[in-house]
C-alpha cells in the first residue's frame, strides 16, 4: 500500500515537472520575443508599427484576462489540432503555455524597459544594428529581471498545473485533490502538498541563483536532462499506444467509489475478455461527453439518461447508450435535524449545481413536500420553476463533490451517492430518498458509429459482471447502488 502511494506521488511529480517544463520553455521563448517586439514598437511614429503594438498588446491583455480554467476549455480545438487530443498530460501543456506566454511577455517588456536608455543611445552612436542592440545591450542588461520573471512564470505554472486533473492530465494537483482530498487519503493529500512546496522552493532558489550568476552553464545542463526526460515520456506514450491494439479508453468522473468500481471492471475485462481498458478520470460533468464526441475516449461511464439527452440536445453530440450500470438514489441529509418536519423557516438547503442533478434535487425536494414546482416540470427544473416555498427555504446550488464539505453549514443537503462516504453517511440515514424505481439509471455511452464495436460490447459485459455488482453492494450499502441491467 505504502509503495503504491509513493509510486503515485513519484509519477504525479514527474507529470507536473513534464507539463511545467515544456510550458515554461514555450512561454519564455515566445514571451521574450513578444516582449522585445512590444518594447521596440512602443511609441513609434510609423502607423503600421503602432498598429502592430496595439493589436498584439490587446491580444496579450485579453489572454491574460481569461481565467485559466476557462482558457483550458476555450482552447480545446487548438489543443486537438496540435496534439491530437484534448485530454491527458501532454494536452494540458497547450493551455498552460498559452496562459503563461502573455504573462511573461508583459514581464519581459517591463524588464527591457528598465534598461538604461543611455546605454542604448551609446550603442546607436557607435553604429550598432537593431540585432546587436537587442542581443548585446537589452537582453544582457535586463537579464536579472528576465530571470526573475521566468521564475515567477514557472511558479505560476505549477499552480495552474493543479487544474490538469479536470481533463485527466494527472500531476500533483490532480493527485492531491481527487485521490487525496476526495478519497480521504491524507498521505497523498499532504504528501502532494509538500512536494508542490518543494518544487516551488526549488524554482525560487534556482531562479535566485541564476539572477546572481554570470554563467548559465547549469541551465543548459538542466534543460538537456528535462528534454531527455520529456522525449522519453513522449516516446513511451507512443510506444504504449502502438502496442495496445486491443485497448479502449473509458472516461468517468472521479470519486473514491467510482474509481474502485471502474478498476474492478478493468480487471474483469482483462481477465475474462483479454481487453485492455485505459481509464481517464475527469473533474467536471460536462467534459466526458465532449471528449467522447471528439474521439479522445471510446466510452464513458458517469451519467444518467436525462443528462445524456440534455447534452445531446444542447451540443448536438453523436453519442448513445449501449448499456446500463446502476441506479444511485439521491437523498436529503442533515446533521442538524432528525426529521423533515423539524425544518425551520428560512433554512439553507444545498443541492448540486449541474443542470440535471439540480433539477433532480428539486424534484426530490418537491416529492418531500418542501417546495412545489410548476406542473409538468421534471429534471429540467430550475430555481425559477419553484411556485411555492412555504418555509422560505434558501436553496443554494453547489458543486456536487463540495456539498458534503459544507453539510454543517446548511440545514439540509441533497447529496449524490458518490459523495456519501465523504460525508460519512449511507443512504439509510437519508431523511428522504428517491424511490427505487427512479428513472435516473446510469449508463455506458459510446459514439453512434461504435454501437456495435465488439471491444466496447465486451466492456459492457465486464462492467455488468457479478464481481462489479458485488463490489458496488459493498461500497454503496443499504441499496444505494441498484443494478439496472
Highlighted features:
485 residues; alpha/beta; six-stranded mixed β-sheet; five-stranded mixed β-sheet; elongated
How many distinct beta strands? Answer: 13
User: What structural class do helix, strand and pairing data support?
Assistant: alpha/beta
What series of H and E elements makes up the topology? HHHHHHHHHHHEHEHEHEEEHEEEEEEHHE
Distance between the amino and carboxyl termini: 34 Å
Shape: elongated
Low-confidence spans: none
Instruction: Indicate the mean pLDDT.
Output: 88
Helix count, per DSSP? Answer: 17
Q: Radius of gyration from the CA trace? A: 27 Å
Helix content: 55-70%
Question: Strand percentage, roughly?
Answer: 5-15%
Biggest sheet strand line-up: 2-1-3-12-4-13
- Major beta sheet summary: 6 strands, mixed
Structural overview:
Helix 1 (2-40) packs across helix 8 (143-160), helix 5 packs antiparallel against helix 8 (143-160) and helix 12 (256-273) packs antiparallel against helix 17 (466-475). The chain contains 17 helices and 13 strands. Helices cover 56% and strands 13% of the residues. The protein has helices at residues 2-40, 47-65, 68-74, 76-83, 89-113, 117-125, 130-141, 143-160, 171-181, 186-212, 217-243, 256-273, 287-293, 305-315, 355-367, 454-463, 466-475; strands at residues 247-253, 276-282, 299-304, 319-327, 331-333, 348-352, 372-373, 386-388, 394-398, 412-415, 432-433, 441-447, 482-483. The chain starts with a helix and ends with a strand. The protein is elongated. It has a 6-stranded mixed β-sheet, sandwiched between helices. The protein is of the alpha/beta class.
Amino acid at each position: 500500500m505504502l509503495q503504491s502511494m509513493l509510486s503515485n506521488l513519484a509519477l504525479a511529480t514527474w507529470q507536473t515537472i513534464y507539463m511545467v517544463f515544456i510550458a515554461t520553455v514555450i512561454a519564455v521563448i515566445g514571451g521574450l520575443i513578444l516582449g522585445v517586439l512590444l518594447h521596440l514598437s512602443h511609441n513609434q511614429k510609423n502607423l503600421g508599427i503602432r498598429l502592430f503594438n496595439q493589436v498584439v498588446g490587446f491580444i496579450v491583455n485579453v489572454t491574460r484576462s481569461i481565467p485559466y480554467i476557462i482558457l483550458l476549455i476555450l482552447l480545446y480545438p487548438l489543443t486537438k489540432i496540435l496534439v491530437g487530443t484534448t485530454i491527458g498530460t501532454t494536452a494540458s501543456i497547450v493551455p498552460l503555455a498559452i496562459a503563461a506566454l502573455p504573462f511573461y511577455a508583459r514581464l519581459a517588456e517591463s524588464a527591457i524597459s528598465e534598461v538604461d536608455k543611455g546605454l542604448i543611445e551609446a550603442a546607436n552612436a557607435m553604429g550598432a544594428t537593431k540585432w546587436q542592440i537587442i542581443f548585446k545591450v537589452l537582453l544582457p542588461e535586463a537579464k536579472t529581471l528576465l530571470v526573475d520573471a521566468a521564475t515567477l512564470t514557472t511558479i505560476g505554472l505549477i499552480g495552474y498545473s493543479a487544474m490538469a486533473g479536470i481533463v485527466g492530465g494527472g500531476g500533483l494537483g490532480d493527485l492531491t485533490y481527487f485521490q487525496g482530498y476526495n478519497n480521504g487519503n491524507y498521505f497523498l493529500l499532504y504528501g502532494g502538498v509538500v512536494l508542490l512546496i518543494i518544487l516551488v522552493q526549488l524554482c525560487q532558489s534556482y531562479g535566485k541563483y541564476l539572477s546572481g550568476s554570470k554563467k548559465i552553464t547549469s541551465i543548459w545542463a538542466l534543460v538537456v536532462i528535462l528534454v531527455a526526460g520529456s522525449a522519453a515520456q513522449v516516446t513511451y506514450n507512443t510506444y504504449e499506444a502502438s502496442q495496445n491494439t486491443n485497448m479502449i479508453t473509458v472516461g468517468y468522473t472521479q470519486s473514491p467509489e467510482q474509481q474502485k468500481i471502474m478498476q474492478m471492471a478493468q480487471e474483469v475485462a482483462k481477465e475474462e475478455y483479454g481487453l485492455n481498458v485505459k481509464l481517464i478520470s475527469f473533474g467536471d460533468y460536462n467534459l466526458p461527453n465532449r471528449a467522447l464526441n471528439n474521439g479522445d475516449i471510446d466510452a464513458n461511464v458517469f451519467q444518467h439518461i436525462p443528462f445524456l439527452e440534455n447534452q445531446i440536445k444542447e451540443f448536438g453530440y453523436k453519442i448513445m447508450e449501449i448499456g446500463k450500470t446502476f441506479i444511485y438514489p439521491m437523498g436529503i441529509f442533515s446533521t442538524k435535524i432528525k426529521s423533515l418536519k423539524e425544518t425551520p423557516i428560512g433554512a439553507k438547503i444545498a443541492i448540486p449545481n449541474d443542470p440535471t442533478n439540480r433539477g433532480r434535487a428539486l424534484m426530490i425536494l418537491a416529492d418531500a413536500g418542501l417546495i412545489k414546482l410548476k406542473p409538468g416540470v421534471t429534471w429540467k427544473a430550475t430555481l425559477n420553476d419553484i411556485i411555492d416555498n412555504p418555509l422560505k427555504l434558501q436553496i443554494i446550488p453547489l458543486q456536487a463533490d463540495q456539498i458534503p464539505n459544507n453539510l454543517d453549514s446548511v440545514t439540509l443537503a441533497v447529496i449524490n451517492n458518490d459523495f456519501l462516504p465523504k460525508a460519512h453517511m449511507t443512504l439509510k440515514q437519508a431523511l428522504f430518498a428517491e424511490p427505487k424505481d427512479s428513472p435516473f439509471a446510469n449508463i455506458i455511452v459510446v459514439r453512434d458509429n461504435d454501437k456495435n464495436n465488439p471491444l466496447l460490447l465486451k466492456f459492457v459485459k465486464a462492467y455488468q459482471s457479478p464481481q462489479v455488482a458485488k463490489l458496488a453492494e459493498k461500497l454503496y450499502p443499504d441499496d444505494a447502488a441498484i443494478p439496472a441491467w
